[in-house]
Amino acid sequence: MLASRFSARLFVPATFSRVGETSMLSKKKTIVGLGELLWDLFPAGKQLGGAPANFAYITSLLGDDGIPASRLGEDALGAEAIRRLGELGLSTEFIQKDADHPTGTVKVEVDPSGQPRFEIAESVAWDFFEFTLHWQKLAQRTDAVCFGSLAQRSDRSGDTIRRFLLGTRPGTVRVFDVNLRQNFYTTQVLAESMKLATVVKLNHEELPKIMRLFKLEDRGEQDSARRLLSSYDLKLVCITRGTNGSLLVSADESTEHPGFKVKVADTVGAGDAFTAALVHGYLRATSLGQINETANRVGAWVASQSGGTPAPKAGDLRQSLAEIG
Questions:
Q1: Which residues contact 234 (CB under 8 A, 6 or more apart)?
Q2: Which residue has the higher pLDDT, 41 or 125?
Q3: Sequence-separated (6 or more) residues with CB below 8 Å from residue 75
Q4: Would you say residue 5 lies in a domain?
Q5: How many CB atoms lie under 10 A from the CB of residue 4?
Q6: Model pTM?
Q7: Cα 156 off chain centre by
Q8: Which residue of 72, 151, 247, 293 pairs with 35 in a disulfide if CB–CB is 3.0 to 4.6 A?
Q9: pLDDT, tens digit, 9 for 90 and up, residues 145-179
Q10: Does residue 295 contact residue 274 with C-beta atoms inside 8 Å?
Q11: CATH number of the domain residue 50 falls in
Q12: What values do phi and psi take at 110, rounded to 5?
């Protein structure tokens, strides 16, 4: 996701004059990051993390209404998370509070290449989602929702996530970001998530695992992506390749991008940033080639910064992205 040059026009600068300022040509969308909200505990200190916050933050920078939907403990870390979300300009309206379970944490160690290793605490607040009337109303007005497998490790949150997805409108784009972590997934959860998804995103290491679990023949990325498309009635499969870019495959076409060469600070949140740009372009029927280029650029920018929610220079995402590549 992160090696080479690409000179094509960015759709982000063409669509937005400034971060958060949507042009007349592009209506702001309601896009939900549904899943685990937690603190990443790095050796040097903690950072607010989890896919929903990272995804919603970049979605908001791109000019849409990025909304994290998750659950926090009624503890000091939960209160600090609420404050941090406010500092990032994100709504906390759909963050549930849990008096019985602590705010989630993850111990993170980053190797010399910037790749993180995770130790994820169990039985925390985001394992106990409730499908409230408030969340039901959010589902009914959502244009796109991104969900993963990690937040479905408990039956209760898994059931809530499925109810949320089934409660969306027929045209809502449902993005399954596979994100296999430790042993927190089952074949059943993965298969059910594929059936509920419009778009599936996974990385080049997860793809062969998925094919084995589903007992599907793996004859290379293109072929495997097309088998997933047909087996689960998907509209798009995205395979990210780390430093080697990404592959997007639909029923009618495919496109590859070699990625961008950057000095990696850490890769935390880079995949979530890629997904945010992917969804932003997909909702606007942008060409697959342009989506791939911009998603790689946004992912590379986040990887070149520390943490998953970096601030763009002078508040202008266009300027920061223009310096990539």
A1: 194, 197, 198, 199, 200, 228
A2: 125
A3: 102, 103
A4: no
A5: 12
A6: 0.90
A7: 21
A8: 151
A9: 999 999 999 999 999 999 999 999 999 999 999 98
A10: yes
A11: 3.40.1190.20
A12: -110, 125
